[in-house]
Amino acid sequence: MRRLFPVTDETAAPAPGGGSGGDAGREWSLDELAAAYAYPEPGPAGPVPWLRANMVSTLDGAAQHDGRSQPISSATDMRIFGTLRALADVVVVGAETVRKEGYRPARAREDFAAMREAAGQRPAPAIAVVTAGLDLDFSLPLFTSPLVPTLILTGAAAAPDRVATAEKTGARVVTAGDGIGVDPARAVRALADLGHTRLLTEGGPRLLGQLVAAGVLDELCLTVAPMLTAGDAQRIAGGPAVTVPHRFELVSILEEDGFLFTRYGRA
């Protein structure tokens, strides 16, 4: 893998055997990936919530193929996926993605154990499911056997029987909206109140669209896959358009085998 941006003396140096970029042809260690994707350091007032998204898209804008993101991913994309999870306190995901992707609990990674302990984090991030109707299969391992109890973000008007069913599994139901749905800004504050300030969302597109529309997304880590799929697959973010496009700034670009691993931050 090689770093294309920001340009440094190392990235501009010739690679062994020709070409450019001192990192070309070398697999980055997990420590190097963790450093490349580190969350901002807390300010004088202490940590504040920072919400990043991690998504993958084809060249023609598809976020999925046959309803799943795995076919447009790569081995390095999955290493970065695992690194981003290892850095996070909590992974926020939409109920539809839980159903389609067969979400499982986040697992403890021995490679990141010392780093998480030093940061005061639990062995693995919690999974927080955003759902209005709690239409979930509570017999799945995500609810019955997580290393860290699963969180459910829902509205105050959620059906009491579904809330009770969720809580019987050990999941923690968090109210983040006055009606049936979830208010994204309130969800971020609720997670921060629980001590989760390093936030990661993996979508899906509808949830990411809601976060974008609410103006709560701080960072986007987007993998651009060198693939074309055509069809009518969703983009990485769906839902109503924002009135004025939100401007983000390029932070970094890594490349391997034609895949671009980009990182953008709020301007």
Outline the fold blueprint.
Layout: E1 2-5, H1 9-12, H2 30-36, E2 50-58, H3 75-87, E3 90-94, H4 95-101, H5 113-118, E4 126-130, H6 141-144, E5 151-154, H7 160-168, E6 172-175, H8 184-193, E7 198-201, H9 205-214, E8 219-225, E9 248-256, E10 259-266
Parallel strand pairs: 2-7, 2-8, 3-4, 3-7, 4-5, 5-6
Antiparallel strand pairs: 1-9, 8-10, 9-10
Structure description:
The protein is α/β, with parallel strands linked by helices and 267 residues long. The protein has helices spanning 9-12, 30-36, 75-87, 95-101, 113-118, 141-144, 160-168, 184-193, 205-214, and strands at residues 2-5, 50-58, 90-94, 126-130, 151-154, 172-175, 198-201, 219-225, 248-256, 259-266. Strands 1-9-10-8-2-7-3-4-5-6 form a ten-stranded mixed β-sheet, sandwiched between helices. β4 (126-130), α6 and β5 (151-154) form a beta-alpha-beta unit. The longest helix is centred in the N-terminal third of the chain and has 13 residues, at 75-87.
Core attributes:
single chain, 267 residues, alpha/beta, 10-stranded mixed sheet, 9 helices
Provide a quick synopsis of the model:
The protein has 267 residues and is an alpha/beta fold. The chain is 26% helix and 22% strand. It is built from 9 helices and 10 strands.
